[in-house]
């Protein structure tokens, strides 16, 4: 008697089609369930997407465009948990006196809820331990082997092996909790998440498409099959009173090119690179790059110009990266003169331009000029960020501009977006990154195919998940999305509402 949710970061129907032999169960389950490709939020990053899933609100309302931004001094700042004031759907569900178990929910806010939670790596409270309450470890011993990291490897193969291990270990928690709930009916909501499908695509999607039979693709497929077996196990284990949902936060695509907008801004005189730095006494001195830096800059330029070389050199690059004075490909920070620069794109994968001029009139003029250049030269549509995200509150607009910027370029599923300053605005090379197409599926065991149009393809958006879940728990809400109408009953119809003390008595065995 529960709503059981499986979150799969980065899952999408193209991957399911490509790897149907590795995921035969999900492939057939899709046709027996309500399913959809949900439209994601732009930028298609996990932080902005999961926040829209959890809040049921658009980016304009929750304000989480990316998980970091640059302040006036050009220092990188993290978006803090308290910056998002919108309620997460599981907080609302808990307030309505329901008990839940959450595992590895990205960008989750476990400080606001009592539990039970096995924490995600992005959870600001990770330092407080992997789970809440701490006693959860003795209740479910498999939590002792929980893994929520992805960075413990130097090679692609090592990373893939580590990812596979996270599935092996974390599925034990899922199974232990589900079997516990089958006996005790303690939880009303069970929500598990695996990030591995996103990671696999970052590492080997190109190789999977090319049908390469390498050690890397072999282990990737093995992991996909492992996830497929988990889904099979879950569907077989759920009770006829249970309902099941599976969804992702975004999809994954291979783009034909990378858009380096800072190059266009530099060519048109809006962006000025830094030529001097302040020494410790406050005197300006010219930036003198070390010889090695000039050499590596040249190398990186060449690597970026020739996509195939970049891919070929990944292993070599990974090896030498450790010996370099800085990371030449994923450079941290932009060396721009903030006094002379009028416009800059500050974040990788976030197609937004920030205007730095203080004078409002000047800024508006620059904004219109840049929009015109992009629309004519690149044939891409531009929007004012506040219009694109439908923000009308002047205070919220000010925060949006200050943190993330003023012009949004709509590059939906066309280019990958990078902020590095190079000589070419568009570099044609195969590049993998997130896209707008997220996966969704809902399944109920006792659905009568005659009555419920089972297997129906539906349409929807990211913000529709929260209202669907809240309506299922009969909780009134006023969210941006709509109910996807995938369940022909509500939770309260299935199970009469308990009063709060009943659960405590049950625990004490009175
Ligand atoms: Zn990703």
- Number of structural domains: 3
Number of helices: 20
Q: Stretches where pLDDT falls below 50 for ≥5 residues?
A: 307-312, 324-329, 504-510
Q: CATH homologous superfamily of the largest domain, by name?
A: Alkaline Phosphatase, subunit A
Rg, nearest Å: 24 Å
The pLDDT mean sits at 85
Write the CATH architecture name of the largest domain. Answer: 3-Layer(aba) Sandwich
Describe this protein's structure.
- This protein is α/β, with parallel strands linked by helices.
- The chain folds into three domains: 3-63 and 76-250 and 437-508, Alkaline Phosphatase, subunit A, CATH 3.40.720.10; 254-273 and 336-432, 2-Layer Sandwich (Gyrase A, domain 2), CATH 3.30.1360; 288-333, no CATH class.
- The protein has helices spanning 13-18, 24-30, 46-55, 59-62, 89-95, 136-139, 156-184, 196-209, 215-237, 261-267, 291-305, 307-312, 314-321, 360-378, 385-388, 394-403, 449-452, 465-472, 491-494, 500-508, and strands at 3-8, 34-39, 68-70, 76-78, 100-103, 117-118, 131-132, 189-194, 243-247, 251-260, 276-278, 284-286, 343-344, 352-355, 381-384, 407-410, 416-418, 426-435, 437-444.
- Strands 2-19-9-1-8-5-6-7 form an eight-stranded mixed sheet, with helices on both faces. Strands 13-14-16-15 form a four-stranded antiparallel sheet, with helices on both faces. The chain has a three-stranded mixed sheet with strand order 17-10-18.
- A hairpin with a 7-residue loop joins strand 13 and strand 14.
- Helix 7 crosses helix 8 (196-209), helix 7 packs parallel to helix 9 and helix 8 crosses helix 9.
- It is globular and about 70 Å long.
- Bound molecules: zinc ion.
- The site of zinc ion has 5 residues, from helix 8.
């Amino acid at each position: 008697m529960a709503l059981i949710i499986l979150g799969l970061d980065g899952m999408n129907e193209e991957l399911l089609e490509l790897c149907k032999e590795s995921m035969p169960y999900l492939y057939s389950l899709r046709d027996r369930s309500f399913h959809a490709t949900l439209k994601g939020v732009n930028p298609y990053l996990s932080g902005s997407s999961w926040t829209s899933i959890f809040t049921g609100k658009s980016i304009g309302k929750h304000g989480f465009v990316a998980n970091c931004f640059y302040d006036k001094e050009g220092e990188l700042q993290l978006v803090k948990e308290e910056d998002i004031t919108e309620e997460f759907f599981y907080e609302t569900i808990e307030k309505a006196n329901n008990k839940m178990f959450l595992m590895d929910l990205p960008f989750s806010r476990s400080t606001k809820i009592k539990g039970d939670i096995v924490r995600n790596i992005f959870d600001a409270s990770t330092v407080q331990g992997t789970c809440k309450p701490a006693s959860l470890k003795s209740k479910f011993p498999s939590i002792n082997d929980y893994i929520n990291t992805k960075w413990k490897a130097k090679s692609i193969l090592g990373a893939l092996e580590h990812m596979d291990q996270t599935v092996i270990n974390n599925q034990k928690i899922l199974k232990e909790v589900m079997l516990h709930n089958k006996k005790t009916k303690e939880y009303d909501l069970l929500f598990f998440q695996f990030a591995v499908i996103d990671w696999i695509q970052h590492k080997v999607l190109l190789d999977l498409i090319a049908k390469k039979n390498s050690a890397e693709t072999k282990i990737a497929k093995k992991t996909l099959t492992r996830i497929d077996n988990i889904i099979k196990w879950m569907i077989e284990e759920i009770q006829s009173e249970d309902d099941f949902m599976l969804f992702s936060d975004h999809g994954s695509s291979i783009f034909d090119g990378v858009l380096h907008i800072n190059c266009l801004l530099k060519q048109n005189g809006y962006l000025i690179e830094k030529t001097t730095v302040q020494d410790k006494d406050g005197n300006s001195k010219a930036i003198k790059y070390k010889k090695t830096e000039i050499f590596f800059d040249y190398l990186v330029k060449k690597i970026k110009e020739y996509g195939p070389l970049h891919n070929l050199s990944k292993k070599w690059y990974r090896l030498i990266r450790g010996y370099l004075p800085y990371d030449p490909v994923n450079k941290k920070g932009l060396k721009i003169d903030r006094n002379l620069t009028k416009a800059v794109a500050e974040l990788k994968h976030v197609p937004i331009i920030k205007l730095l001029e203080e004078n409002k009139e000047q800024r508006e003029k620059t904004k219109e000029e840049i929009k015109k250049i992009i629309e004519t030269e690149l044939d891409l549509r531009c929007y004012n960020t506040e219009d694109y995200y439908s923000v009308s509150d002047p205070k919220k607009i000010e925060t949006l501009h200050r943190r993330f910027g003023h012009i949004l370029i709509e590059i939906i599923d066309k280019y990958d977006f990078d902020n590095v300053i190079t000589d070419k605005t568009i570099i044609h090379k195969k590049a993998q990154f997130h896209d707008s197409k997220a996966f969704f599926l809902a399944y109920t065991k006792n659905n009568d195919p005659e009555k419920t149009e089972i297997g129906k393809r539906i349409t929807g958006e990211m913000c529709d998940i929260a209202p669907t879940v809240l309506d299922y728990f009969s909780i009134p809400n006023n969210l941006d999305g709509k109910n996807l109408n995938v369940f022909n009953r509500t939770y309260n119809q299935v199970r009469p509402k308990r009063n709060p003390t009943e659960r405590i008595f049950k625990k004490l065995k009175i």
